[in-house]
Amino acid sequence: MASLKPEERVILVGHSLGGLGMSVVMERFPEKISAAVFVTALMPGPNLTFITISKEFLRRFGSFMDSQYRYDQGPNNPPTAVKFGPNLLKSKFYQLSPPEDLFLALSLLRPVPFFNDEELVLKQTKLTKGNYGSVRRVFIVTDQDLTIGESLQRLMIEQNPPNEVKVINRTDHMVLFTRPTKLFSYLGEIAEKYY
Question: Which option is the CATH number for 10-194: 1.25.40.180, 3.30.70.660, 3.40.50.1820, 3.60.40.10?
Answer without folding.
Answer: 3.40.50.1820
